[in-house]
Structures
1.
Amino acid sequence: MSDHALTLPAGAAAAIRAHGSETYPHECCGALIGRDGAVVEAWPLPNTTEEGPRRRFLVRPGDYRAAEQRAAALGAELLGFYHSHPDHPARPSQYDLDHAWPFFAYVIVSVQQGQPADMTVWWLREDRSAFEAGSLIEERGEPVSPEAAPAGPR
Ligand SMILES: [Zn+2]
């Protein structure tokens, strides 16, 4: 375990899971935009490429430019990318390793039978020999339990 950590607001975590379900059995892919290790937006990249639906995670130059423009529009930075592993564990594949860039966070969500399952985050080692698991910190959404809700008028 490295000392890398990525904070995901509840809305961004939900958006990644929903994107993975939506594109199942194909992979989904998107950009993680934020600052200082905290995501402000999970921004979906198109699921259909010139080669058809995404089967393997690959960020193309056009995706990269679009993600950087989106980050600039939000006054934030491109922190990394997310993608799904349909019916596979939330661990990077050799293909992911071969196509990863240093310094970026890579979030992977496993989607089993169309349902989102484990979600993990990884960083490439400086020597690019492997990924290291980081800590994915999911922020909780608004409290929804009756005890936590503000008391209404009586
Ligand atoms: Zn992958």
Note: The chain has a mean pLDDT of 89.
2.
Amino acid sequence: MWRRVALDSRRRCCALPGTRAGSEERGRSRSGMQQLKGEAKAEAAASGCAICLEASPSDTLVLPCAHSFCRGCIDTLFCRHAEEGDYASRCPTCRAPLFGVADNSFGQAMEQMAGGAYDAAVERFAAARDAALPFATGPAGLNRLAAASQFNIGRAHERAGRYEPAALAYRAASSMYPPAHAVGASEALSNEGTMLFHLGRHAAAVALWEEAVALDPTDTLTQLNLGMRYLNSSDIGAAQSKVEQVIEQEPHNARAYNLRGVILQRLGRLEQARGAYAVALELDPQSPDAARNLDALNG
Ligand SMILES: [Zn+2]
Ligand SMILES: [Zn+2]
């Protein structure tokens, strides 16, 4: 009997700290503009950094608009806006897009990806990455918009069903996040693992998923991918411990209850398995896996 446990890839934030929403669901809101008012007052300070008012910043970043700030101040500003889904951060002084054409390209690429124009999106994201890279905001020459662009090259390939180039793109993205932003690297590694899984390279996928979870222990989606894989390699104990860990972290995770049902069924505890599928369906009435598993068990 085929029991369904769907494999999922991480569909959340394309890059930035604190956010967990899928990048494609996030608009490029302009809400961040409100927050700029404070900084804008600093325009009076014609020289030095208009954000922190330091007269002679030790590490200056000159933006494409030619205004200059502390590198750290711009990084903080960009991250704060990106957390709100606003990648179109603007220069606090002149309101030009923070990273010039990179911002515009990123926005266009997101729209192309949403419209299914994956080849065009890959090209635009690459253009955004290359345009953002020279404006390194983070340590070691990193730029979070560049990392986000690289990550989304992977997403575009993935959506087009091209797993090999998607895996390579995610691999490249995972090394572009600053150490302080382990979540970004974790997402890229997790998705690279999922691509390799699709390509039948299961052991390599598991290694990447484990690496991703070590970097971001709150990542329940990847933990469930691991649980499913452990189950399929007949390591039921490891699968069980993953599932229970996820349910403890997210008591309303329907996918976790479905996998718990599959494990219980494998152990011959059919009544408890039925109960787990029922909980999964209660939490997510649209869950096709739990519905089919329950039908199969009852039929
Ligand atoms: Zn500053
Ligand atoms: Zn400016």
Note: The chain has a mean pLDDT of 83.
